[in-house]
Write a structure and sequence with these properties.
Elements (H helix, E strand, L loop, with lengths): L4 E4 L5 H12 L3 E6 L3 H13 L4 E5 L8 H16 L4 E6 L14 H22 L3 E10 L12 H20 L6 E7 L10 H4 L1 H10 L9 H11 L10 E4 L6
Helix pairs in contact: 1-8, 3-4, 4-5
Length: 252
C-alpha cells in the first residue's frame, strides 16, 4: 500500500493510534486528528516516522460536527502543497467518546453530545471528504459490539453506533459508481482509556468480559489495528457494506 494516504480521526491514542501504526507499517502515509493532546499526537508522529513512513496531525473537535468542512479544507491545502494534489485513499472515522449512564439518568445534553460526536460529525466529515477521496478508495466507520449485545448504561452510545451501521450501508450503495467501498468495524470490549478505562483497569469487569468471550480475554488495541489495515488492503477489495465484529467471540 505504498504511496497511499489514510485519514484517521482520533488517531493520537487507543484504537486510532494502533490503526495508524498498522497502516504506517504497510507503507501508508498517515493523516490523523487529535482533540486536544498535541503532545500525544507528536509521539504518534515519531512512532510512525520510526517505522519509515510519514504522518501529520490536525486538531479537530468532533463535538462540533460542521467543523469537518474546515478540517478538510486544511487537509486539502496541506496535501496540495506536499503532493501537488489534494487526494487521499482511505477515510477511517474513528473519533469518539463514551457515555455509560443508565437510560433514566441520561440528559438531553448527554444525548446531544453523542449525536454530535458519533453521528453528525461522521456524516458531515465524510460528506466534506468525498471530493478529495480517490475513486476506488475505502471508508471504514467504527461501530461497537454494543449494537449486537446489550449492557445497561450504553443506550445512547449504542443507538448512535446503530445509526452508523445503517449509514455505512447507504454509503456503500451511493458511492458504488466511484468504486468506493464502505464497511463498519465493530470492536468488542477493548483495554484502552475509552469510557474511563474500565476495560483496562477494573479487574472485576475484565474477569466478567473474559468469561463472556470465546477466546477468554479482554481485547487489546492491537487486535483492532490489523483489521483496519486488512480492510484498507487490496485483499479486502470485495468486502463492501459489511459489519465486521472484532470481539474475540464475545457473547456468542
Amino acid at each position: 500500500m505504498k504511496n497511499k494516504i489514510a485519514l484517521i480521526t482520533g488517531g493520537s491514542r487507543g484504537l486510532g493510534r494502533e490503526m495508524a501504526l498498522n497502516l504506517a507499517n504497510d507503507g501508508v502515509h498517515i493523516l490523523f486528528t487529535y482533540h486536544s493532546n498535541e503532545v500525544k499526537a507528536k509521539e504518534v508522529i515519531t512512532e510512525i516516522e520510526n517505522l519509515g513512513s510519514g504522518a501529520t496531525a490536525f486538531q479537530y473537535d468532533a463535538n462540533n460536527p460542521m467543523s469537518g468542512k474546515a478540517l478538510m479544507e486544511e487537509i486539502s491545502s496541506f496535501l496540495q502543497g506536499k503532493n501537488g494534489n489534494s487526494y487521499f485513499d482511505f477515510l477511517i472515522n474513528n473519533a469518539g467518546t463514551g457515555l455509560y449512564k443508565p437510560f433514566k439518568d441520561t440528559t438531553a445534553s448527554d444525548f446531544d453530545e453523542m449525536v454530535n460526536v458519533h453521528l453528525k460529525s461522521v456524516y458531515f466529515l465524510t460528506q466534506a471528504a468525498l471530493p478529495y477521496l480517490n475513486d476506488g478508495g475505502k471508508i471504514i466507520n467504527i461501530s461497537s459490539g454494543l449494537t449486537r449485545f446489550s449492557f445497561p448504561g450504553a443506550s445512547a452510545y449504542a443507538m448512535m453506533k446503530g445509526g452508523i451501521e445503517v449509514f455505512t450501508r447507504y454509503l456503500a450503495k451511493e458511492l458504488s459508481a466511484r468504486k468506493i467501498t464502505a464497511n463498519v468495524l465493530a470492536p468488542g470490549a477493548i483495554a484502552t482509556d475509552f469510557g474511563g478505562g474500565t476495560n483496562r483497569d477494573n479487574e472485576e469487569k475484565r474477569t466478567i468480559i473474559s468469561n463472556l468471550t470465546a477466546l477468554g480475554r479482554v481485547g487489546e488495541p492491537e487486535d483492532i489495528g490489523g483489521v483496519v489495515a486488512f480492510l484498507c488492503s487490496g485483499k479486502a477489495g470485495w468486502i463492501n457494506g459489511q459489519r465486521i465484529e472484532a470481539s474475540g467471540g464475545m457473547l456468542l
